[in-house]
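Let us begin with a simple case.
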Amino acid sequence: MDVARLALLALLAACAGGDGAPATSTGAAPAMPDPASTATFGAGCYWCTEAVLEQLDGVLDVKSGFMGGKTVHPSYEDVCSGTTGHAEVVQVSFDPKKISYDDLLEWFWKLHDPTTLNRQGNDEGTQYRSAIFYHSDEQKKAAEASRAKHAQDFGRPIVTEITAAGPFYEADEHHQDYYRGNKRQPYCQFVIRPKLEHLGLKQ
């Protein structure tokens, strides 16, 4: 559980005029997305993952949310408790004529450390696990082949799970496009910005 992130979000909710009730994820899980133009990745904090992938040419939209757990409509606080089984994920809508699923997998391996179990940097917990949630047999095969291709790249075994996609629960609005709207926040300055700089992306 990341106490600093929870405290920051509580402050943001208060500033937005909230009533103090815990934030909950929005609405029902969407209908089955098009597997030819949808990818779902867990790579630690979804704020970080979103900030990278939304800059790629051919990516149409990136939504932060939760997948892989047992609780229906979990809140951020529920997921941070470690009791729901969900991972923080981003669901990516992309134009396969401009960027392929294989290209997105290449970025997935670059933007996080897939060898640390349930952890990315100081963010620790099962919600931060490395995961690829596939939407078709073709995506499963591509993900497995990509994982095997990069198996020797990190010096330690890859622990990324490759799992069939389940219900995606979109996180609350103040989690979406988080870096763009909160660049001065310490987490953005000390975690996300250096990642973007390292990857040669816009900060």
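The second case is a distinct protein. As before, the sequence precedes its structure tokens.
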Amino acid sequence: MTTESLTYSELGDRLGSSPEAARSLARRLRLLRKPGNDGKVRVIVDLAEIHYKPVPARSPDGRQADNSALNARIEQLQAELARLEVEKNCLEASVAGHRADFERERDRCDKLMAETLVLTKVAMSARENAARLEGEMSARRGRRWWGRLVAPRSANAQRPAQTSVTASPLPARI
């Protein structure tokens, strides 16, 4: 196990890569780094333990093949997007129709509720009147026959005016 102290450019030359790739590799493998006397950073490394394979450079033909596949996928996605937008517009129109139906039914429900409240009020008033009249009837039924004659009359009914004997409306008989 022999260790060497190399700069990033020397390590890149030994591995067949750039100094930036050697620096990234040293950072990734957490190799010991020390500043040298010349001001450059030196990496202490055992080259037998490093299994580094540089990525081969891509050829321009490979990129063209990738681009055509990507362009085909982009066109496919754009067609799907257009189809989805048409579907979205149809759904929005349907939603607008349902919203109008909902609003109309809500207005109808509000009117029915107001009418129900008015009819409930009328029904309660009728029940109160029926209960009052039933109470009066039962009170009248409970009296004796002479009590009905003597009972005070309601304030609305007035007694006929008393006439004197001298001013009788009947014609006198001779």
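DSSP finds four helices and three strands in the chain. The mean pLDDT is 82.
Keep these points in mind for the review questions at the end of the chapter.
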